[in-house]
Amino acid sequence: MAETVRGTxxxxxxxxxxxxxxxxxxxxxHMWTQIVGKIxxxxxxxxxxWWQSTLYVTPRGLTTSSxxxxxxxxxxxxxxxxxxxxxxxxxxxxxxxxxxxxxxxxFYQEIMDTLTASGIEVKIWTMPxxxxxxxxxxxxxxxxxxxxxxxxxxxxxxxxxxRIMKEFRSRFIGKCSxxxxxxxxxxxxxxxxxxxxxxxxxxxxxxxxxxxxxxAYSHEVSSCGFWPGAGAVTEPIFYSYAYPEPEGFKDYPxxxxxxxxxxxxxxxxxxxxxxxxxxxxxxxxxxFLQSTYDAAANLxxxxxxxxxxxxxxxx
Length: 315
What we know:
Layout lengths: L1 H12 L5 H25 L12 E2 L3 E3 L3 E3 L2 E8 L4 E6 L4 E5 L5 H14 L30 H22 L10 E3 L4 E11 L12 H7 L2 E9 L9 E7 L16 E3 L4 E5 H5 L4 H19 L4 H4 L1 H6 L1
Antiparallel strand pairs: 1-2, 2-4, 3-4, 4-5, 5-6, 7-8, 8-9, 9-10, 10-12, 11-12
């Protein structure tokens, strides 16, 4: 009986997310989040490493947070409980767009029309980024799927990952990104910085200008996150990498034992199923995040005493 109850709770808190079963919804939702993210990018003041472009996990989905527009502000949020996109404007206006099966082109047009009718004029570059064979949003009638069950599942996983990654982030008092969702790659990430400049990134990310990538990786980082997978990666994963990658990084001992270094991806990988099925998912994921950061910081000669809360508190 206890196993049945635990299994039920696990499926709610850490649901399964087999890529093959929600691939069509994933591809459509990826484009929808890119449209919303590009609206934030177009109107928000530029921040280092493109932090002004990201989305954030909420108790109901994903949000842009407040976007400035003249003397007004507005916010665009995905609600994966009620399954609508909500636009809240500081003049008291609220608009909703249903999240239902429909083409990217129709979704794009309705968002832009809704913003225009609300007195918000914005132009975005409509070419998707970080995907192969991109189709401009206004012409994309290929991607039309939306399964509310799987949209909600991925949000529930992001919510748990966000919670644990915020705990991990709190241990570091040096320069660190928020825990935020990158719509280009469709992953949730948090990045710590050593404080030192990094060599120019070689670039080469599909449909991403190299100068954009170089700004993102202008300084040494240890970055980790959650990604649902795509292409050759056929299952959801947690990941962790360093840029630049220090010598010996791939051979550094990490936890848990199921984690490994992927030579193809050049990062440490922990399958999502390992976390999902663990007796203590929080502890397992935190051990992965901490041990892979240790690999980057120790081998990269970071000044750990100046940037880590645990060391300062014990001094």
